[in-house]
Every structure is written in C-alpha cells, then in structure tokens.
Design brief:
This protein is an alpha/beta fold. It contains 17 helices and eleven strands. Strands 1, 2, 3, 4, 5, 6, 7, 10 and 11 form a nine-stranded mixed sheet that branches. The N terminus is likely disordered.
C-alpha cells in the first residue's frame, strides 16, 4: 500500500496491468487475439481455407488479395461464382471478417457456396509494393481512388476471372469501393460485361453537405492542409501499426477504465451512438480501421464535398488544362454503370447523406434497389459491423445475388 501511494506512476501501471489480465482472462481467444491478426490469420482461426494472390496493375503496383475459395464444411464452391468484397478508405481486406464466424459477410458468403475474394487497394497494409517505385517516394503515393478504379479494379477482375475460369463476378463494396467501381464503369465501360451484380454499402459518391462536425472544421482549410503535408513529405496518413494495435488491445476492452473513451472516439469518427455497435469487438475494429490511405485520396474526397459533384481530381486551372484539356476536372459519367446495382445507407451516417444516395440512384441505368436501414442511428460502418447486419443487409444481399 505504501509503495502505491509514493509511486503514483507505478500505481497506474500496476492497475492497468491487472485490468488487462482480467479482460484477457474473460475474452482472450474470442476477441483480443483477433486484434493482431490480419486476413489470413483471421480466416484460419475461424476454420476457413485462405489463399494469397498477387496482382500487378498496368501502372506497376503489386496488390495482395486473399481468397476464401469455399466454406468450412465443403471443399469446393457450389458453382455460385466469385464475389469481390472491396473495402473502403483507411481499411483493408480484414474489414469483412472481423465479426467472427457467424456474423462476418466474408464467411457467410463462403459458407453459402461463393468463391470469396477479399481485395486490397494500393498502399494499404497488404499492398505496399511497386515494381520500380520505392514506398517512401512521392511518386508511389501519387494516387487516389481514381487510379484504384482505373487500374486496380480492372486488373483484379481480369485476374480473378482468369484464375477461376468464370465469365463474370459479383461485387460488394463498402464506402470508397463504390467510387472505384463507378470510376471503372465511367472510364472503362467494357468491364460492365464482366460483372453480374453490384452492391454499394454507404456509397460516398455525391457528398454535398455531409453532417459530420469535423468536416465543417477541416474542409475550409483542406487545401492548406494538403500543401503543408506535401511540403513535409507526408504522402500517407493513418498507416497500420502493430504498436497501435497493442495499445488499443490494452485500452479498449470492455471493463477497462478507458473503454468508454474508445467508444466515444469511434462514434466521433463514424457516426452517432448507434445501438448496433458491438462494444465487445471495439478493440478489434479500431486497429483494423487504420490500414493506411494516401493524402491525395482524402484531398479528392474533400473536393467532392466542396463541389457536390463526382469528378476527377482537381489539379488547378493550369494543370487541369494540361491533363484534361479544360480548366475544371471532368465529371465521371455514372450513367455508364450498366451493371445492376443495389444501394444501402443509414440515417446516422455522418459522411453519406440520404439525398446524395438518392441522387446517385436516379442516375444509375440499372438500379435494383435503394435500401435505407431502419435503425435511425445506423452509421457509416453499421452496414458491415452492426449487430443486426446479417438480417438488415447481408440476407437481402444474398437474396438478390440468387437472381443473378
């Protein structure tokens, strides 16, 4: 007791250590062990076969994708064909299998007989190589979701179809994955013929007037922030860190004194205090939601919010004329997206407002459905992470996929 009173720093360390031990004893295998696992480790832990595939893009990036070729109980697919699960910005392929065996879309699709491909964008924790460019160069990070749609997705689709011998595949995306596919459809519309059906969960395409309070602070100075970061040689933000994951594993489990701080931080970023959040899994979610993003990707999004338009990157009048032959960046022609598309969104999403989703739905030539999640506080990540995501989102998706 006297030692604790005199050495307050030691008291804090001892208390934290004891707290972690208590938390780990309650949930070591079911939750906390997932914090440090990436896609292959998570898949194997829950009893699924997993393959690693490397895809080279036209502009030299090496993408690492993971394939779950079949479910736990069957050794082959049931002929339902391949499906891409494309994560959004800041994330990686792990995003689709963080809810465990029964409630993760990646596992549910595999058990339903689909050939599941968990794909990764250039620059995230799994795809940090180029045939010539070093990762610490400005040239490596000179991309946004435009290049992901122009090069990453076409190369990925071609590789999957060549590997599986199929003619078409299904596509399910969260957040930025919608931008990528719409860029591809606009710039390379022939790829529509290689898609059977697509699903956009929380699509951030037409973004005028989002309600996130932080955006109202950052947007007016986003150009200045971009210039400062570039001058400092900071081309990547929020990269994955094993050290951060270990800190989160200590601070964020239920029962920890700092757990509520982690909950508030999550809500601050992703939306209102949704009752759909499984707080037990929060220490798993947070480090996996930080897998790296290029500064240019975020600047491209700030441009969309300011303009309210879905358009190519704005380099400024002089460079726009050089690149595009006109003073302002051209809009993407969303009407070239002829693949059947279903949209899903929530009223509690601080980035994607319902008006923007409805406007997108009116432009799509082959809209299958537009679906608002019934919970009033359904936030940006709830279409994938929500406690009731299977009933609200996943089951309807599987029902639509049966028709294509």
């Amino acid at each position: 007791m006297m030692l604790q009173i005199k050495l307050k720093g030691m008291l804090i360390l001892l208390h934290t250590s004891s707290l972690v031990c208590l938390t780990q004893s309650a949930a070591e295998d079911s939750v906390l062990s997932d914090v440090l696992l990436s896609t292959p480790g998570l898949a194997r832990k829950y009893g699924y076969s997993v393959e690693e595939h490397t895809v080279q893009t036209e502009d030299g990036y090496l993408l690492t994708h993971f394939r779950i070729p079949h479910g736990r109980t069957n050794s082959t697919t049931e002929g339902k064909g391949p499906v891409i699960l494309q994560h959004g910005q800041l994330c990686a392929s792990d995003f689709w299998i963080l809810n465990g065996q029964e409630k993760s879309l990646g596992f549910i699709l595999a058990d339903a007989g689909y050939d599941v491909w968990l794909t990764n964008i250039r620059g995230n924790r799994h795809s940090r190589k180029h045939v010539t460019l070093p990762i610490n160069s400005a040239q490596f990070w000179n991309f946004s979701w435009h290049e992901m749609g122009m090069y990453d997705m076409p190369a990925t689709i071609d590789y999957i179809l060549a590997t599986t011998g199929e003619n078409r595949l299904s596509y399910i995306s969260h957040s930025m994955g919608a931008n990528m596919l719409l860029v591809m459809a606009s710039m390379r519309p022939d790829y529509n013929d290689k898609l059977s059906v697509g699903f956009f969960l929380a699509p951030p395409v037409y973004l005028k007037n989002p309600k996130h309070p932080l955006l109202h602070v950052i947007l007016p100075i986003s150009g200045l922030i971009g210039r400062v970061l570039t001058s400092l040689g900071i081309w990547e933000l929020f990269p994955y860190s094993n050290k951060t994951a270990r800190i989160v594993r200590t601070l964020c489990p239920e029962g920890a004194l700092t757990h509520q701080f982690c909950v508030l931080a999550y809500y601050t970023v992703y939306g209102e205090d949704s009752p759909q959040l499984n707080k037990t899994l929060l220490p798993v979610y947070i480090p996996h939601l930080l897998s790296g993003v290029s500064t240019k990707t975020l600047l491209h999004y700030s441009q969309l919010i300011k303009s309210g338009r879905f358009q190519q990157f704005d380099y400024g009048t002089k460079k726009n004329i050089e690149y595009y032959g006109q003073p302002s960046p051209p809009d993407y022609d969303v009407k070239k997206m002829t693949t059947p598309i279903s949209l899903y969104y929530g009223e509690g999403d601080p980035f994607v407002n319902p008006e923007g989703v409805k406007y997108l739905s009116e432009l799509l030539p082959h809209l299958v459905s537009i679906n608002r999640a019934p919970p009033p506080k359904f936030n940006h990540n709830d279409p994938v992470f929500a406690i009731e995501a299977k009933q609200i989102v996943f089951d309807p998706i599987l029902n639509v996929m049966k028709m294509y």
